[in-house]
Amino acid sequence: HGGSLHPALLEVPMMIKLPGMSTGLRSARMAQHIDLLPTILSVAGLPGTSELRGADLSRELLPEDRSVFSSVNKAGLAGISLTTERWKLVVAKSGLFKDTHGAIRLFDRKVDLKETEDLSAKDPESVHLLEGLLAREQIGRHRATAKEVSIHGDLRRELEALGYIEEGEKLKDPAN
Known about the structure:
Layout: H1 7-10, H2 36-43, E1 68-74, E2 77-83, E3 87-92, H3 95-101, E4 104-108, H4 124-140, E5 147-149, H5 153-161, E6 171-173
Antiparallel strand pairs: 1-2, 2-3, 3-4, 5-6
């Protein structure tokens, strides 16, 4: 596991047995590993914090429009993906991954469960929308009080080209 962003490795069942449960519940909604800690804390009667990004699966019905973030960085393959009920956007980060699959791929999960037809060239609006959601997800992973930081070179040009920052814009360092 972990060497691909293919659905066979990402879309696996999650089973949780909570105290007092005699029968299981089944949901087709997407859950993530980040949902485990808020769920365990809640069941144990311990407080969570606003810093936790996951959902408490013991209390919440997951929204239909939930998006799931995944990443891989193993054996020359590096990439990230964002999956919604309908779409999956895969962004290759390494040369090998890009060479094998292309830099950006878009799949319609309603009609292409095996992710064989890349729709990125046919549907640039959906690509742009999902790239925005992906950027927000990545920013959300680094929530904190921030100080200004300088980003230079290729990274800055890439962020500007994607429209995430404007030329000359000062940025905040999420690590501080």
